[in-house]
């Protein structure tokens, strides 16, 4: 790539140092706590504390009520939480909560894991370049949302860039993976300053051999909100 990818990518490195060290020393089947924390907040904001408590209890996670995890957690915990809420709620409602949780997670990552300089710079870059830098940054933090799954990301094309992300053996797959789709939607929309359409053509929870997302970045300006 003719651009200074390494130079700009180094913007991400300081914020990732402690995470990387933590991830290195952790067992493979660990995942970032936000998969549980943000799902709890999404549940509480839609249904209140009573329903949240029932679903946490069903998932065996009652100890996290009022005492959310701060460090990496066993990936079986968010998996149990996703399963419990999908069992407790109609599919459409469960997907709504998972989507909200994914957007909250993306917001957390933007605020806390992307250094301020990168946060300011990325939306000003051409989408094709911003997408590439973001995929590179996401790959370095993949354990936060992919756990023991194997994450890969690439971007095709420059004029109309298409981001392709995949997780093999995705530990948090649910049909259509609304949580992951919302995480990616939030990250790419915010940090590439473009409309993005996230499509999930292959899903492990629907019988495919992996989960794969396609994110198309429009080149037009963002709508006024
Ligand atoms: Zn999937």
TrEMBL record:
Residues 162-217 form the 4-vinyl reductase 4VR domain. InterPro entries: BchJ, NO_sig/Golgi_transp_ligand-bd, V4R. SUPFAM superfamilies: Ligand-binding domain in the NO signalling and Golgi transport. SMART domains: V4R. It comes from the Bacteria. This is Bacteriochlorophyll 4-vinyl reductase.
């Amino acid at each position: 790539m003719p651009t200074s990818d390494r130079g700009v990518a180094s913007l991400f490195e300081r914020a990732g140092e402690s995470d990387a060290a933590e991830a290195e020393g952790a067992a493979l089947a660990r995942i970032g706590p936000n998969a549980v924390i943000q799902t709890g907040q999404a549940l509480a904001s839609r249904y209140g504390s009573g329903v949240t408590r029932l679903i946490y209890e069903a998932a065996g996670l009652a100890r996290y009520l009022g005492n959310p995890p701060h460090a990496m957690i066993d990936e079986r915990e968010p998996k149990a939480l996703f399963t419990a809420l999908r069992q407790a709620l109609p599919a459409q409602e469960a997907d709504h909560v998972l989507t909200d949780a994914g957007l909250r997670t993306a917001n957390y990552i933007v605020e806390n894991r992307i250094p301020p300089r990168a946060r300011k710079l990325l939306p000003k870059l051409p989408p094709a370049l911003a997408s590439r830098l973001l995929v590179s940054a996401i790959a370095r933090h993949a354990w936060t949302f992919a756990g023991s799954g194997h994450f890969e990301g690439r971007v095709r094309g420059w004029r109309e860039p298409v981001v392709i992300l995949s997780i093999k053996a995705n530990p948090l797959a649910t049909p259509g993976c609304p949580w992951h789709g919302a995480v990616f939607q939030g990250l790419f929309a915010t940090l590439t300053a473009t409309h993005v359409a996230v499509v999930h053509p292959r899903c492990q929870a629907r019988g495919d051999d992996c989960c794969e997302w396609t994110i198309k970045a429009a080149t037009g300006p963002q709508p006024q909100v």
